Amino acid sequence: MDPQRNKSPESPVQPKHQSGATAIEFAFVLPLLIALTYALFVYSYVYVVYESINFAAQQGAEAAVAVDPGVDDVAGLITVRAQTTIASVLDWLPESQRAASIGPNGSAVLVTFCSPSGGGGQYCPAVETGATPVVVRINFPLLAPNLFPVLELPLIGTVPPLPAAIVGVGVVLIPGQI
């Protein structure tokens, strides 16, 4: 009678040649698990920054509407109001990231006054209402050297792959010509 036949199905039978297989499999899987966990954290932060940049650009554009179009240097007032609004909305960012994206007090925020025909720059819409489109744009560089360390894994490549920058845009129509 064969001694293997009388063993119950619950008893583990491990041949001697598989004793280190688990450790080898774990050694192959561990770098992948670490890369996935790291990418999860990085992409979560990138998503929060993306939503915040878009929200700040929209808030800056909405703040531009509050400027009285009848005052002197309305374009300068709109620009300053949009920049200070964006700086206050993005106040939660670390100083180095805020300085790289919007500059001190929002000075790096681009405020473009478009012609009603749609000319004047990127993101300028064509309108037929006689209003002036104002585009507020924020550029957030993601490949700054101190933002996220990039891992180079063999056979996988760069983890996590990121775009060079995130751009947030807000557009508003100001009544009349500026």
UniProtKB/TrEMBL annotation:
Chain ranges of the TadE-like domain: 20-61
Transmembrane spans: 21-46
InterPro entries linked to this entry: TadE-like_dom
Keywords for this protein: Membrane, Transmembrane, Transmembrane helix
Highest taxon above the source species: Bacteria
Protein name: Flp pilus assembly protein TadG
